[in-house]
Sequence to fold (162 residues):
Amino acid sequence: MKTAVVYYSMSGNSEFTAKKISDKIGADLIKIRPEKAYPDKGIRKFIWGGKSAVIGDTPKLLPYEFDADKYDEIIFGFPVWASSPAPPIKSFIKENLSKISDKSFSVFACCMGGGAKKAIDKLKNYLFISDFKAELTLIDPKDKPSKENDKKTDEFISKILN
Ligand SMILES: Cc1cc2nc3c(=O)[nH]c(=O)nc-3n(C[C@H](O)[C@H](O)[C@H](O)COP(=O)(O)O)c2cc1C
Fold:
C-alpha cells in the first residue's frame, strides 16, 4: 500500500504534521503551493486567505510532481481557513479528481480552535465521499506542542497502518 501525503501549509503547522506522518508510515510528501503566495503576516493574511476561502477560490498551483497511479491512499493535510480547507487543497482536487477517485482518503486539519469539522465536511463534498478512513484535527501542532496533539496523531497513524 503506497501513500501520498498531499498538503498545503502557510506557517508550518500542517507541514510539521505532514512530515511526522510521512516519517512514521513511509509515505511520499506532496507539497502544494499557490503560484501567487498569500500574504503571511499581520491582518492581511487573514483578510486575503479568509476571502479566498469564503468565495471558494481555486488558485493556480505551482508545478508539483504527483503520479496518481503510484498511490492507493491519499492523506490530505491543510490549515483551516474560515472553516474551510485552505484553497490550494481545492485546486489540487479540481486538477486531479478523475485520477484519484478510486483511492482511500484520510485527512488532517490544523486550526487555532474552531471550524475543523466544517472544513473536513467540505473536503468530503469536494471528493464526493461520505467518510474518511481516518480523520485528525490538531490545534497549531508546531506552535503549541501538546500531549493531546501527540496522542491524537499517534491514534491517527495507527488507524492508517491498520
Ligand atoms: C486566512 C486564515 C483563516 C483562518 N481561519 C481559521 C478558522 O476558521 N478556524 C481556526 O481555528 N483557525 C483558523 N486559522 C488558523 C490556522 O488554521 C491555524 O493556525 C493552522 O494551524 C495554521 O496552519 P499552517 O501553519 O500549516 O498554515 C486561520 C488562519 C488563516 C491564515
